[in-house]
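testing teh design pipeline on a random one, pls ignore if ur not involved
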């Protein structure tokens, strides 16, 4: 099994955790942090160092995009063209290009957000013609079922990796020189399943409780 290495970005999921906990990791040199709630992110961002790369990993409502558009580094959970269009609009207002991941529904549970393969196909096909110049679709994000069954989790991650390979294998050239992420991004894996995710090809894991302790 592959270990965390240079080829895997670790996003420390700091939701519900106080700024002090974030600072502790920051002082060790960590810069990528993930939050799920706009309100919470807006409280933390102004009081923490400006070179933190904030990942928005939760479900994002279109009417809240404007609040995070000035500073967000990567939006993981994009699941509609409407949302992508709004991100583009707010990015433009801020004179930025915002990197986004499309969220794909790979789990068996009904409750998890995300696109199915057909909806993904439709967005990927229509995107180039829409001239949304202030967003970049950098890759895919997904969450496996909450289960102890490793085979189920592997199968779900594998299905996401296949979609990733289909669309992003050759999309490596349009990056800025200062980008930390020199490849298409496949965001999959959390505390309980990150090893399986990496073994199945993830290059970004989102880890909360394993780093910060369990949430109440
Ligand atoms: C909370 C959360 C995580 C981190 O979960 P842990 O099990 O604490 O590692 C990762 N991804 C998303 C989308 C989350 O909401």
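output:
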């Amino acid at each position: 099994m592959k270990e965390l290495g240079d080829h895997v970005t670790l996003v420390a999921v700091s939701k519900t955790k106080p700024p002090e906990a974030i600072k502790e990791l920051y002082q060790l040199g960590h810069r990528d942090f993930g939050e799920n709630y706009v309100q919470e992110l807006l409280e933390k961002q102004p009081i923490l160092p400006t070179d933190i790369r904030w990942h928005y990993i939760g479900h994002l409502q279109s009417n809240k995009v404007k609040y995070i558009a000035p500073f967000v580094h990567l939006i993981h959970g994009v699941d509609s063209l409407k949302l992508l269009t709004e991100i583009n609009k707010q990015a433009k207002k801020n004179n930025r290009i915002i990197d986004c991941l499309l969220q794909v529904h790979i789990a068996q549970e009904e409750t998890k957000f995300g696109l199915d393969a057909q909806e993904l196909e439709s967005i990927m096909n229509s995107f180039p013609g829409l001239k949304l110049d202030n967003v970049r679709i950098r890759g895919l994000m997904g969450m496996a079922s909450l289960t102890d069954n490793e085979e189920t989790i592997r199968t779900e991650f594998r299905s996401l990796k296949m979609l990733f390979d289909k669309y992003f294998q050759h999309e490596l050239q349009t990056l800025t020189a200062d980008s930390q992420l020199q490849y298409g991004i496949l965001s999959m894996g959390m505390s309980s399943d990150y090893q399986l995710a990496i073994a199945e090809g993830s290059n970004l894991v989102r880890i909360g409780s394993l780093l910060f302790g369990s949430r109440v």
